[in-house]
């Protein structure tokens, strides 16, 4: 099968809460081990990346009682999104290139992933509120032990106090609630929303996607988020530790 032409349009950038959407199949691929991959012109499926797991769901023939492709993993390579999975009925009808399809996202998984990702960003704001001026680093927003890392250290004798303060601050902000803004902006507009400057990995002249919680400065992010901080639910800081100049804050959220 020929390689797909051009990047996949990320439809969740336009509407982050759309769980159903139409699309057209550009190509189908047979992977080693029997796994299949579907490439679309546009997708509402979030591929694994940016510390967030992939969406799951289904790609269904728009004709109705046709083929149903179960999406088990989603990855992006060179801007092209690959939807990996299998047909629900292995002996039944398959999808074909150029076919119109309907995309269906697993709503519960998306909601959990979005809450976990937003919780990680909220902790960045809480660190600032507590006077901990550490630079945000890696984020892991998976259900099996989410955490955020910061460049810099919290003194060892302050770790337990800061753990309790972080959790208290986070839950106070959640209880108050605040709208979450997520959109694509020009480079200059994005810089203003992010406190006057963007990280060096954002190239000048680009149009970065920014997430911003209430009145707090925004930051570049390609993930999915809640509509309001209140939707995160109860947050617990399960551990905070320092190793090799990095502070790691582990957390969990209520089911």
Strand content: 25-35%
Note the gap between the termini. 42 Å
Strand order of the largest sheet: 2-3-7-6-5-8
Secondary structure category: alpha+beta
Rg on CA atoms, Å: 20 Å
* Range of helix content: 10-25%
Largest sheet: 6 strands, antiparallel, barrel
SSE arrangement, N to C = EEEEEEEEHEEHEHEEEE
What is the number of E strands? 15
Overall 3D shape: elongated
- In DSSP terms, counting alpha (H) and pi (I) runs of 4 or more, how many helices? 3
Mean pLDDT: 94
List low-confidence stretches.
none
Mind sketching the topology for me?
Layout: E1 9-10, E2 20-30, E3 36-40, E4 42-43, E5 57-61, E6 68-77, E7 80-87, E8 100-105, H1 107-129, E9 135-140, E10 147-151, H2 159-176, E11 180-184, H3 187-193, E12 209-213, E13 219-220, E14 235-243, E15 246-253
Parallel strand pairs: 1-4
Antiparallel strand pairs: 2-3, 2-8, 3-7, 5-6, 5-8, 6-7, 9-10, 10-15, 11-12, 12-13, 14-15
Helix pairs in contact: 1-2
Task: Describe, in short, the structure shown.
This protein is an alpha+beta fold and 255 residues long. The protein has three helices and 15 strands. The longest helix is centred in the middle third of the chain and has 23 residues, at 107-129.
